[in-house]
Design brief:
heterotrimer; A mainly alpha; B alpha+beta; C mainly alpha; A: mainly alpha; MetI-like fold; 2 domains; 13 helices; 0% strand; C: mainly alpha; 11 helices; 72% helix
Chain lengths: 308, 529, 301
């Protein structure tokens, strides 16, 4: 187990290295000249060239990459092309809002998703099943930006229950996390339903039922516990995708998180910031995958790790 | 027992479903409630003196010498001041200089500085401070955005503590406007080497409190401000809120006291609301289509005129600008310095068709229009496509992300440029005629050197632009700019469309916060009533 | 748009879809499927949409692209059942006309990613070894990018336009297909008759095509039907970012995102496209769920 974990951890390094090259090439493949965008619309050619030189954008691409990686290995993420602010500093202030947003989204999606999953599985083929699945699938059938705008219109402007966005109070996270979690909720509901159905067919659940245990006990103690492991695992995997989804939600709800920083940085071809963000997203995704993998092994002794 | 479990689960289901249903069903209700005027009946008051302003983009930098975007400039102006300033008509007014004189040859500017002004850190404002700031701007190593505005400065002298004499190498008509853009930073702060983008120290009415990247800029009342009785509020908080719908929602709920820009689509909706006041002023922002005069068929004056006749400018304002704007009647807005009104190109599709036939295109032709991919620009391009279709010009709309578009335009030589029509806007950064003319119409400024995307070249215009820049006498400059505008209007390198309005929304209790014609926000006189 | 790409990896418990000859059980499948009331209703709705997509241009009450500046943003009425938009165009006509476009974009995007993903998944699962690791690490890398950047990147590199939207949506749909098909392939490979075929000396290509591919068909069908909804939403999200359909085209997503500035003054402009997108995506998802249940051998009637 320990050996497996170390092996997997070491495996992350080449993966991140490849990601860094890909990210770098990809960004530079996208047309757009950061020097010109920084200089502004009425800049002279001389000014633009000056900025280009200052940023090192006149160097050959491989050299830019080497310089970048050199700084990165020293722990220096560089400075924003657009504002000159150190990237590290920008990430510091942007990190927390996104993390809170994704965790709250995941949290409620997990609870509601599981509830719907249980209820629909227990009542399979009856009308609570239909309503539950309809509600769950509705969550994944709406464009996120639209749901967000409608929620603001209804719950902030009309009813005045929640703020329209921002990060000033905990209430400001309610609408955005609902919007962001809707898709995941629907997915988790469907997944927990099918995994509940499956475990309920397993022998030990049937035995429990045959022994005359109450349905509640059967569902709660046996079926639920087993499918819970799988559902939590799956939910963990969604974390990376939530990070991506935060882009739109952060725009609609004016949350100063990493998603919005990414959109702004892409618009200005702020290479250093985009690179840092993407590497961070990738690292986070890979890390969480790894943790989920390992947890799965801990929770489910049936799986053994072969070290090949 | 079984029954109980089921009831419970049904309740949970119902709850989940209601939440989703409320989200969907609420949409139609949203419209009805809103059109009745927000629902509140009593005018709302505010019990503190902290003003929140929501704007549509982030601040980029708080270095006043390196700020290029309007919002960063607005932010800097809460804390900093220049020798000169602008009033709400974009006219120059004295700020840190009480008065000034210009020598007859237009080369020497003498400023008499205001006395008893202190920076936020207690340092005195004096001639030396001005000199230090100008040197910072002009130092090539700093590579500041403001440097090119001061490239003609040959010498800065400080004969006494309250006098600054600036000598230029050649006359530069727009120089005073530039001195209004160069805000003065505390020399002590600069000397100490603290990062002034993080800790701005100026002479302005507000002191820096905090700047959280992407979330807010907070400035506090400067108790020792040199103008008596100002400022009247305790703090100002700027918040970037990019999505139009969210920004207006903040104004309606009172989370923001002032928003800019106010989405034009929603102006009519809030106009009946007694808690919200919408202010509209003409801006210096002009909207037009550049026509590539080096490319067929746009190289034919008749074709360019036909396009101008084919577009109904009134309908453009009604449809694209929700009725808020005015026709563009020259190459610059009426709010820009030395504007001279032109006439003609009234909507006349028959004349447009006739001109096209004369030019050899009786059936029209196929064309392509470029523009950025924000919803407002896309709306404008769609309208233009509809209008030109009526005279037989079949336009394909190509919306591109800003940086991609800029790359497309600037990576081409004039001869092989693919650009045909570009739907775009322009606003001179310091409200001066030079900024609204040179980069757009001088043949020196074909892309990538500048923004003359019409590839317009007229020898007279080229010469006049140089003359105007060097003229010392405002009247002479005015008449030269009149000639320039007349010539451009006749040559029609653009399809002239409209002038934006700067539209702001505010809560009724807030006064004194104003947006200027260039879209910058002034909070000096902010007051809660 | 990001949620959709994984939704289906998970929602189809992979192992349930294998171990079952794909042919000959059509009747059993139909009888199971017909019992799924929601899925049947949804199928009828989608069928209707396809009919509208085909005959749409002939049944529109107004020319969908003809502006009328004297009838801007009028609410629903007898003359305009769904009202008019910000140019005074009839929204119902645009929705009908746009059905074809919206369907074409999402269907072709999903088919492209299904084909590419199936091929990659089959290769990866069947051959294993370095090629498997390469493909799977590749999809890991793609998963670790936010879809948004991929989409912006692809559209920026290729230029704007609907065909590039198709490519962008297809590219970020491919890895999840590859993963699903790979896991189905792995279990199919273990099954007896593949081993038998191998021992009889059949060529790899033939084994993949004749024995393994049929095993993956149910998964492909289920996933295609579930992904179409996601693709419609992804295209709409691209429109929100200004990277979608040309603003002149009556694509539903473009209508929704162009109209969002009018949400509070003329909600019908976004209400109708939003509602039709919602119904369509919902229907495709319900069909997917129904198919999943019907194709699942463990499901009891």
């Amino acid at each position: 187990m320990g050996r497996y974990a170390i092996q997997r951890l070491l495996g992350v390094i080449p993966l991140l290295f490849i990601v860094s090259i890909l990210v770098f090439m990809f960004i530079h493949l996208i047309p757009g000249d950061p020097a010109r965008l920084v200089a502004g619309k009425d800049a002279t050619l001389e000014e633009i060239n000056g900025i280009r030189e200052q940023l090192g954008l006149n160097l050959p691409l491989w050299q830019q990459y080497v310089n970048y990686m050199g700084d990165l290995l020293k722990g220096d993420l560089g400075e924003s092309v657009r504002s000159g602010i150190p990237v590290m500093e920008m990430l510091e202030s942007r990190f927390l809002p996104t993390i809170i947003l994704t965790f709250t989204s995941l949290g409620w999606a997990l609870i509601i998703g599981l509830l719907i999953g249980i209820v629909t599985a227990v009542n399979r083929g009856k009308w609570p099943d239909y309503i539950g699945m309809l509600a769950a699938i509705s969550g994944i059938s709406l464009p996120g930006f639209w749901l967000g705008l409608v929620l603001i219109q209804v719950f902030s402007v009309q009813l005045g229950w929640f703020p329209t966005g921002g990060i000033d109070t905990w209430q400001s996270y309610i609408l955005p996390s609902f919007t962001l979690g809707a898709g995941i909720m629907s997915m988790l509901a469907r997944y927990s339903r099918s995994s509940m159905l499956e475990t309920m067919r397993e022998d030990y659940v049937r035995t429990g039922r045959a022994k005359g245990l109450r349905e509640f006990t059967v569902v709660g103690r046996h079926a639920l516990r087993n499918s819970l492991i799988q559902v939590v695992t799956v939910a963990g995997l969604q974390f990376g995708f939530l990070l991506g989804g935060s882009v739109m939600v952060e725009t609609v709800f004016s949350i100063p998180g990493m998603g919005r920083l990414l959109v702004d940085s892409i618009a200005f071809r702020d290479y250093t910031v985009i690179q840092a963000l993407l590497l961070m997203f990738a690292a986070e995704f890979i890390l969480i995958n790894l943790i989920v993998d390992l947890l799965y092994g801990v929770l489910n002794p049936k799986i053994r790790y072969a070290s090949k | 027992m079984r029954f109980k479990g089921r009831t419970w689960s049904l309740l949970m289901l119902l709850l989940a479903f209601t939440i989703v249903a409320a989200g969907c069903g609420g949409n139609s209700g949203g419209g009805e409630g809103a059109s009745e005027g927000g629902g509140e009946t009593k005018p709302v008051t505010k019990d503190n003196k902290d003003v929140v302003i929501a704007i549509n983009a982030n601040f980029i930098t708080l270095d006043p010498h390196n700020a290029g975007d309007t919002h960063s400039i607005s932010g800097a102006r809460t804390m900093y001041e220049g020798l000169m300033g602008f009033n709400e008509k974009m006219e120059l007014v004295p700020m840190l200089a009480e008065d000034h004189t210009v020598s007859e040859d237009g080369l020497t500017y003498t400023f008499n500085l205001r006395k008893n002004v202190k920076f936020h850190d207690g340092t005195d404002f004096n001639a030396e401070a001005v000199k230090v700031n100008l040197e910072r701007i002009m130092n090539e190593e700093n590579n500041l955005r403001m440097r090119k505005s001061f490239s003609k400065v040959a010498d800065v002298q400080t004969p006494d503590e309250h006098t600054v004499v600036i000598t230029l190498s050649e006359p530069y008509n727009a120089f005073l406007n530039k001195t209004a853009m160069a805000l003065i930073i505390s020399p002590k702060a600069l000397e100490d080497g603290i990062d002034i983008t993080k800790n701005p120290v100026g002479t302005g009415a507000y002191k820096f409190k905090e700047w959280v990247q992407g979330d807010r800029l907070v400035v506090l009342k400067n108790e020792d401000y040199w103008q008596e009785g100002l400022p009247k509020v305790d703090s100002i908080t700027f918040k970037p809120v990019p999505e139009n719908g969210s920004r207006i929602a903040m104004l309606k709920t009172g989370e923001a006291d002032f928003i800019y820009p106010m989405p034009t689509e929603q102006v009519s909706e809030v106009e009946g609301d007694q808690n919200i006041v919408v202010d509209k002023i003409d801006s210096t922002i002009v909207r037009y289509i550049t026509l590539n005069t080096m490319k067929k068929p746009y190289d034919d004056l008749k074709v360019r005129q036909a396009i101008n006749y084919a577009i109904d400018k009134e309908a453009y304002i009604k449809v694209v600008k929700s009725g808020l704007g005015s026709k563009l009647t020259s190459s610059m807005s009426s709010m820009t310095q030395y504007y001279s009104e032109q006439s003609g190109y009234d909507y006349d599709p028959e004349k447009a068709k006739a001109l096209l036939a004369e030019a050899g295109y009786p059936e029209g032709f196929e064309a392509e229009i470029w523009g950025e991919n924000d919803s407002e620009t896309m709306k404008g391009m769609q309208f233009i496509q509809q209008q030109l279709a009526l005279v037989g010009i079949k336009v394909e709309v190509k919306s591109m992300e800003g940086a991609t578009l800029s790359d497309q335009i600037n990576s081409a030589t004039p001869e092989d440029a693919k650009i045909q029509m570009w739907y775009v806007s322009w606003s001179p950064s310091s409200g001066d005629a030079d900024g609204a003319t040179k980069g757009l119409f001088s043949s020196e400024f074909f892309p990538p050197a500048g923004s003359n995307t019409a590839y317009y070249k007229n020898d007279n215009v080229d010469k006049w632009i140089m003359d105007a820049n060097k003229s010392v006498d405002p009247e002479a400059a005015k008449s030269i700019y009149a000639d320039i505008q007349k010539q451009i209007w006749e040559d029609a390198p653009w399809a002239f469309l409209g002038v934006d309005q700067v539209i702001t929304g505010k809560r009724a209790y807030l006064e004194g916060v104003k947006a200027f014609p260039d879209g910058s926000i002034n909070v000096l006189n902010a007051e809660i009533k | 748009m990001s949620d959709n790409s994984t939704a289906t990896v998970i929602s189809v418990p992979e192992e349930t879809l294998v171990n079952r000859p794909a042919t000959g059980k059509f009747k059993a499948f139909m009888s199971k499927f017909m019992k799924q009331k929601l899925a049947v209703i949804s199928s009828a709705f989608i069928l209707l949409l396809f009919i509208v997509a085909i005959i749409g241009p002939h049944i529109v009450p107004y020319p969908p692209n003809e502006p009328n500046y004297d009838a801007l943003m009028e609410g629903p009425s007898a003359a305009h059942w769904a009202g008019t938009d910000e140019y005074g165009r009839d929204i119902l006509s645009r929705l009908i006309d746009g059905t074809r476009l919206t369907m074409a974009v999402s269907l072709s995007a999903v088919f492209i990613s299904a084909i590419a993903g199936t091929i990659l998944g089959l290769i990866s699962g069947y051959y294993g070894g370095w090629i498997d690791r390469l493909i799977m690490r590749g999809s890991d890398v793609m998963f670790s990018f936010p879809d948004l950047l991929l989409a912006i990147g692809i559209v920026a590199i290729l230029g704007p336009g609907l065909s590039n939207v198709v490519i962008a949506v297809a590219v970020f749909g491919t890895p999840s297909f590859a993963r699903i098909i790979r896991s189905v392939t792995l279990s199919a490979k273990e099954s007896l008759y593949v081993e038998a075929a191998q021992s009889m000396g059949a060529k790899n290509n033939r084994i993949i095509w004749k024995h393994i591919f049929p095993e993956t068909v149910p998964s492909i069908i289920v996933n295609v039907s579930m992904k179409i909804g996601g693709a419609i939403l992804a295209a709409a999200s691209l429109s929100f970012l200004g990277l979608g359909a040309k603003p002149t085209e009556p694509d539903w997503g473009a209508m929704l995102s162009m109209g969002r500035d009018y949400l509070s003054i003329a909600p019908h402009i976004v209400y109708f496209p939003g509602f039709i997108i919602f119904l369509t995506v919902l229907a495709f998802n319900l069909i997917g769920d129904g198919l999943n249940d019907a194709l699942d051998p463990k499901t009891k009637n």
